[in-house]
Amino acid sequence: KRSSELIRSDSKQVEVITFDELFKKVEMLTALLES
Asked: 0.85 cut: is pTM over it?
């Protein structure tokens, strides 16, 4: 039980991003680099 609580508190700190959001960030970065 204690370990699952630790995992839960850790996951709050981790920024969870979807693949779509990651792809948009990469697209924006490449657009900035190309300009």
From this structure: no
Query: Residue 6 pLDDT more than 70?
Result: no
Nearest-angstrom CA–CA distance, 35 and 28? 11
Range with top average pLDDT, 3-7, 13-17, 18-22, 27-31: 27-31
Question: Any idea how long the chain is?
Answer: 35
CA distance 17 to 28: 16
How many domains are contained in the chain? 1
* Amino acid at position 19, single letter: F
Q: What whole-number distance in Å separates Cα of residue 2 and Cα of residue 11?
A: 14
- What residues make up the domain containing 27? 2-34
